[in-house]
Amino acid sequence: MAKKYGREVDGWLILDKPLGPTSTDMVNKMRWAFNAKKAGHGGTLDPLASGVLPIAFGKATRTIPYIMDATKKYRFTLSLGESRTTDDREGEVLFTSDHRPSDEEIRAVLPALTGDVMQVPPVFSALRVGGQRAYDLARAGKPPELPPRPARIDSIVLVDRPDRDTAVFEVQSGKGVYMRSIARDIALACGTVGHISVLRRTKCGPFDLSHAKRIDEIRLDKSSETVDNADTLPVSLLEVGTALVDIPALAVTDEEGRILVWGQSLDPDSLTYPLPVSSHFGSNVWRAMLGEHVLGLCSVQNGRLRAVRMLENHEFFGGQDVD
């Protein structure tokens, strides 16, 4: 999480991250541009990856875990014939192969790589091994043997075959899935080797490229205006609750909302409005809504409805305690 300084800014900026900088570089750059106290991102993109990078400011940082856990979509190009140390074009060549699979051969292996699978992460990854990052060990000439990890891959679709050496795929997956590993495994399953040469994230939870701003669309010069006014933001932000739109909404009254915000509980059977169908997060999480305003998230625990993560505090209700 970024260091606190500057002014209170709340909301989401969906950045179309360019090639080159890291996700942390982009958070720091945007935090500076917005002069924001608090900022963070909703899912790392490698320097050689572009696309949807959700950046949270202020209260929106409380919803980052739900973006991290959300479904994501990617489009990548697999270059066939060379495996690389990093499983992308930045690494050194390890092995080569003259075999180039047909479209039919490629499509035939995809079902086995889809669903709930065990995936071996790339050696050049941020996973910790004995207290050290895997990529640090690899760069020191001691690449670790990383065990397979559970991964959920909803779909892998071959969408283009520009030439015999490249194939373009679209993937939908859950949290913590490595596209570099998918590309590597597709090539191996086809009896050859390969690596990712182009990677772009097209969707992250409720955010997609239609929400994304390019760097050149964001005013980065703060010298002309520094007053604490939303109109002076470098670009308009999406509301904090936008990150939670995929979670079923529970309408609450003013009194019920106040009870949840103050950390007290409610009898689910006594609510003014019934609980919606359970959320897709699998833990009965709901978005507490007072009119059109998102108060935060709640769930049933030990038979009582309680706050899970509130976006508002007691000041929202004028500091008035519940009876």
UniProtKB/TrEMBL annotation:
Class in the EC hierarchy, top level: isomerase
Domain tRNA pseudouridylate synthase B C-terminal span(s) in chain numbering: 180-219
EC number: 5.4.99.25
Database matches in CDD domains: PseudoU_synth_EcTruB
Keyword terms, alphabetized: Isomerase, tRNA processing
Active-site residue numbers: D46
Residue ranges of domain Pseudouridine synthase II N-terminal in the record: 31-179
BP term (GO), one: mRNA pseudouridine synthesis
Reaction(s) the record says it catalyses: uridine(55) in tRNA = pseudouridine(55) in tRNA
A molecular-function term among this protein's GO annotations: RNA binding
Gene3D superfamilies recorded: Pseudouridine synthase (3.30.2350.10)
PANTHER family, per database record: PSEUDOURIDYLATE SYNTHASE TRUB1, TRNA-PSEUDOURIDINE SYNTHASE
Similarity annotation: Belongs to the pseudouridine synthase TruB family. Type 1 subfamily.
This protein's name: tRNA pseudouridine synthase B
Annotated organism of origin: Swingsia samuiensis
